[in-house]
Specification:
By secondary structure, this protein is α+β, with helices and mostly antiparallel strands. It folds into 2 domains: 142 residues, PurM-like, N-terminal domain (60s Ribosomal Protein L30, Chain: A, 2-Layer Sandwich), CATH 3.30.1330.10; 159 residues, Phosphoribosyl-aminoimidazole Synthetase, Chain A, domain 2 (Alpha-Beta Complex), CATH 3.90.650. The longest helix has 18 residues.
């Protein structure tokens, strides 16, 4: 029985220690009928269209208020599928672990993945484990690939935004980026901020059960809501007008941003969606969202226009209009 307190190079060599690591940590937490000891999982494909996505996670620190890199890796991939209107079905995951990484922490990461996958209704069906030498990796990196089944009648894309669409966010913005910033940097700021990291298929399903007339769904991860809006404005060649007073921001996040000169719209979220839908559907969508676990503070924050294509215009709290600066350069590194 493996009794090592840290991950060693032997755990990645393919021998006895590798098998023990897989049995103790990964098989113990990821067991399901589709996970086997063979070289690949054998799966039943969906009847209709599929969505597939891959994402790498190298967040620093790997543990933070509200989650850890394991929870984040499941949420990030499940949410990417959900944004395409796809019910998550299967995930694979690959670990690159630094020699000397605490075994207890690795088990904590795997347990978080197990819990989050169960909540999201997705199976982890295959994976890979590599151990890198000391200093070659910062703790642990995880890469996940997900496959989902797109619901009939659903088509979402950043190219489908239309003038007249309402813009909805599913909750307060910027919390994940603010959490990671405070954990990583020694600013001496005492703020009770917790990441919004969450699996959002249930959130999307609630919207699609209300109406399938939804044009865009996007999760606001790196670069936050502001970056997502600029991406969609460019893809669809439309203008976007935001009402700054309607953008929900947690008071603690607003306070941190005020002290550091940051714009909450550009801080990452890991549990928030941006939704574009015809304004006739917007009220019903928000009503449905506010009944769900992760979207109680959903709000309509703006609309799509045919003016200023490719730009995001902000209406300030005093009624003035200004172009929201397009983000550039490095924002907050390694937030996911």
């Amino acid at each position: 029985m493996m009794n090592s307190k840290t991950v060693t190079l032997a755990h990645g060599a393919g021998g006895k220690q590798t098998s023990e690591l897989i049995d103790r940590v990964f098989k113990a937490h990821f067991a399901n009928p589709s996970l086997t000891a063979d070289d690949a999982a054998v799966l039943t494909p969906p009847v209709g269209k599929m969505a597939m996505t891959t994402d790498g996670f190298i967040v620093s620190p790997s543990f933070f208020p509200g989650g850890n890199i394991g929870k984040l890796s499941i949420c990030g991939t499940v949410n990417d599928l959900a944004c395409m209107g796809a019910k998550p079905k299967y995930l694979s995951c690959a670990f690159v672990i630094e020699e000397g990484f605490p075994m207890e922490k690795l088990e904590e990461i795997a347990a978080a993945m197990e819990k989050t996958a169960k909540e999201a209704g997705v199976e982890i069906v295959s994976g890979d484990t590599k151990v890198a030498g000391k200093g070659q990796v910062d703790g642990v990196f995880i890469t996940t690939t997900g496959v989902g089944e797109i619901l009939p009648g659903v088509e979402t894309s950043g190219y489908l935004a239309k003038p007249g669409d309402a813009i909805i966010v599913t909750g307060d913005v910027g919390r994940h980026g603010c959490t990671i910033l405070l954990e990583r940097e020694n600013f001496g700021i005492d703020a009770d901020v917790t990441s919004d990291c969450a699996p959002l298929w249930g959130t999307v399903e609630a919207v699609l059960n209300t109406t399938k007339d939804v044009h865009v769904i996007r999760d606001a991860t790196r670069g936050g809501v502001g970056t997502v809006l600029y991406e969609i404005a460019g893809q669809s060649n439309v203008g976007i007008v935001l009402d700054s007073a309607k953008v929900p921001v947690q008071p603690q996040v607003k306070g941190v941003c005020g002290m550091l000169g940051l714009e909450p719209l550009y801080l990452a979220c890991e549990g928030r969606l941006v939704i574009f839908a015809p304004k006739e559907q917007a009220a019903a969508i928000v009503e449905a969202l506010r009944k769900e676990k992760y979207s109680e503070n959903a709000a309509i924050i703006g609309e799509v226009t045919d003016q200023h294509p490719g730009k995001v215009v902000m209406t300030t709290e005093i009624g003035a209009k200004t172009i929201l600066p397009q983000p550039g350069g490095e924002l907050l590194p390694r937030i996911c």
